[in-house]
Amino acid sequence: MPGRTVSRPIEPRELRDAFGTFATGVTVITARRPDGGPIGVTANSFTSVSLSPPLALWCIARDSTSVPAFVEGADFAVHVLTAAQRDVALRFATRGGEKYPSGTIAGKHGPAPNVPGALCRIDCVVQELHPGGDHVIVLGRIVGVDRRVGAPLLFHGGRFGLLEVDASSPAMDLWDSLSTGWF
What we know:
This protein is mainly β. Helices cover 11% and strands 37% of the residues.
């Protein structure tokens, strides 16, 4: 459909449903507010940007009370949730309220809080912030990775789901495939 233009306004619900056809992983992003208090938000907008330098990005609603935690140079951590962490995703998706179980956060200083049991933790430092409509795009420089084997939690069509691996499909490294014509 090259050259096609939209001839009518797109309703937010229609656009949200269209975006929902793209299955994503589920993450919890943690950081500390300027006063040192812990914050955490559920996000499925996380994506890799670059291997060299190591960069990733995610988007946060501009009106989120957690936005002040994300300034250039601030630490944050991306936690890729496991299939067994739906409750964690829902807890961090709420506005306000207690997101961290009592006693799980030590002090008001130090690195971004941890989400125990996550499939992967990617430690980042905010490198740049960009306006993106009703969101802020957070570009992070990756400074550490800790991962384990397990099944990821997915989100599709407004519902959580699980990945069913096609055993007949060969395992491949998409990064290596770039030189062999995958893209």
